[in-house]
Amino acid sequence: MGRKYKEILIPYDGSKYYKKSLEEAIEIAKKFGSNIHLLHVIDALTMVPPVYDSPDVIIDMKKFGQVLKNAVSKSDLILRNEVLRCKEKGVDADYKIITGSVADGILKFAKKMEIDLIVMGSQGLAGIRKIMALGSVSRKVSELAQCPVLLVK
Hints:
The protein is an alpha/beta fold and 153 residues long. It is built from four helices and five strands; from the N terminus they run E-H-E-H-E-H-E-H-E. It has a five-stranded parallel β-sheet, sandwiched between helices. Helix 3 (102-112) runs parallel beside helix 4. The longest helix is centred in the middle third of the chain and has 28 residues, at 61-88. It starts with 6 loop residues before the first strand and ends with a strand.
């Protein structure tokens, strides 16, 4: 008989809700002998300064590429430390960094990796959306995921 939650996904966004969701996932993983997958989806569109409807606006792709590279490097360092933290608590963990739409990236990763449980914050770092009771990413993931989703406050 297989483990109930063999593969657990925790999307990383750096918010206080992420930290709480990781702690919750570690406890679940200890109980069920689960593997933890940390995933950071970098939405490249949020890295581009607002562009107004002006044909004169030119995005310097070299600068944009460097900004994206720096974001990936920063995430890589943070997630390596998070994996070490999991391992120190006796839980196997790994991480992946991808670019694209955050909710869609989480859903695609969960399907591809046959995730059994997604543990994520009820809200994240999404600017004005913080006012909402449930963040747009957590709402979409909880509605469309093919596995259970635990939302942590």
